[in-house]
Amino acid sequence: MFTNTFVPSRVFFTRGIGRHKNKLQSFELALRDAGIEKQNLVYVSSIFPPNCRLLTLEEGVKELLPGQITFCVMARNATNEKGRLVGSAVGMAFPAAKSQYGYISEHTAFGADENEIGDFAEDLASTMLATTLGIDFDPEKDYDQRRQIYMMSGQIVDSTSAPCVTTGVAGLWTTTISAAVFLP
Description:
Elements: E1 10-20, H1 23-34, E2 40-43, E3 47-48, E4 53-55, H2 57-62, E5 69-79, E6 85-95, E7 102-110, H3 114-133, H4 143-152, E8 156-161, E9 164-167, E10 173-183
Parallel strand pairs: 1-4, 2-5
Antiparallel strand pairs: 1-10, 3-7, 5-10, 6-7, 6-8, 6-9
Helix pairs in contact: 3-4
């Protein structure tokens, strides 16, 4: 029987923008801008592990080694339309009990500014966590009203996001990425 449990103990946010005439190279340049281009990235779903510590970008990037298998939750978007607003964001909701898991969400959009796309990603993560914790709320209320209910419940302590938004340039692919990168 094989038992190899990997539960990340640390996480950091990063984001980047890349522009190039080729879409794939635009993505590579966004990874470089985010500082994670040397990793073998493995996309995972949306659970913020229990007892996981949030690091700064600088702290996290220093821990990475070239070629390392690196797990992340990533939102990625691209456009080749001049003047088109393009963006991506990951949002994270933190439970009050550190022994409880939280949620990370990915969101991409066109035409949304950083506040809009960041709030939407936080809303997704917070709502997923709230439903898991059994917090009673009206899903039809706007996010600010629901956020107050989440925080007042004492079960969700905070939420945050890493939005990345820019405008497309004529003749180039423009890629945005936002990622929560896990470390052992």
